[in-house]
Amino acid sequence: MPVSDSVDRDGEGEGADARDGAGTRGERPDDGLPINELFYSLQGEGTLAGVPSVFVRTSGCNLRCWFCDSYHTSWEPTHAYMSLEEILAEIERHDADHVVLTGGEPLIHEESVALLEALDDRGYHTTVETNGTIDRDAPIDLASISPKLESSTPTPERAPDDADEADAEQWAERHERDRIDLEALAGLVEDYDFQLKFVVTDGDDMPEILDLLAELRDVADVPIRDDDVLLMPEGATRERLAETRTRVADLAMEHGFRYTPRLHVDLWNDAPET
């Protein structure tokens, strides 16, 4: 199993950050980030699948995918604040050259830039997993961009079982409004080495993916190759992946895109800190 540093805590209170809806716990350092998990594992997705990495998972997100596989960073955000010094000390405990900053949506936090700068100074390779709605100026080695499709929007019929009905209705409108930001997407692909990683359920998702790629190619000042596009099966459990993976692999071959597994799900199912 992956190695956990057990920094995740239950959030307390009703105080909410206006950017992300995350509750707070304890003192917030001036340079701190709300950390849900910090652990050592294998990268499970994308072009670096299989690479040993330290994962820094921040809490809080500006979207609410109904199938979110990190529920406690979005629908029910929980975290403990850690200072930049504390985060770096935990990372340095592990024998890894790669660090993955993930969430939630880590780029909603301005303090993520300082962390990425510190990691760059120390020679780490950094991947940032982002939904593509925020573009920040930071040293990022790989922007792993996962634009959210219409099929990710929560509805009363498709929302997490534990989600409050009124909360789900509110987020349905906000999520649909904010899930695609073409300007931010273009900035990310222009500024960084990138991969576009789409969560796909079935062939109904493909027209939207193809339309978005066409729009992005029109506005971006860099080429976006089919090889930069990865299709990833929707599913946070082995059982769900068994339903989606073959049809998504077939779609990747049909359209000339890359297929990416969810290695961590194959290995550890839906266990936390993977």
TrEMBL record:
Region (Disordered): 1-33, 129-172
The protein's required cofactors: S-adenosyl-L-methionine; Mg(2+); [4Fe-4S] cluster
Name of the molecule in the record: 7-carboxy-7-deazaguanine synthase
Stored Pfam families: Radical_SAM
Presence of the UniProt keyword Metal-binding in the record: yes
Pathway(s) where this gene product acts: Purine metabolism; 7-cyano-7-deazaguanine biosynthesis
Domain Radical SAM core: 48-270
E.C. number: 4.3.99.3
Residues at which substrate binds: L42, Q43, G44, R57, T102
This protein's record includes keyword S-adenosyl-L-methionine: yes
Naturally occurring in which organism (per UniProt): Haloterrigena salina JCM 13891
Record-listed [4Fe-4S] cluster binding positions: C61, C65, C68
Oligomeric and partner information: Homodimer.
Positions that bind Mg(2+): S70
PROSITE patterns documented for this protein: RADICAL_SAM
Binding site for S-adenosyl-L-methionine: F67, C68, D69, G104, S146, P147, K148
GO MF entries: 4 iron, 4 sulfur cluster binding; carbon-nitrogen lyase activity; magnesium ion binding; S-adenosyl-L-methionine binding
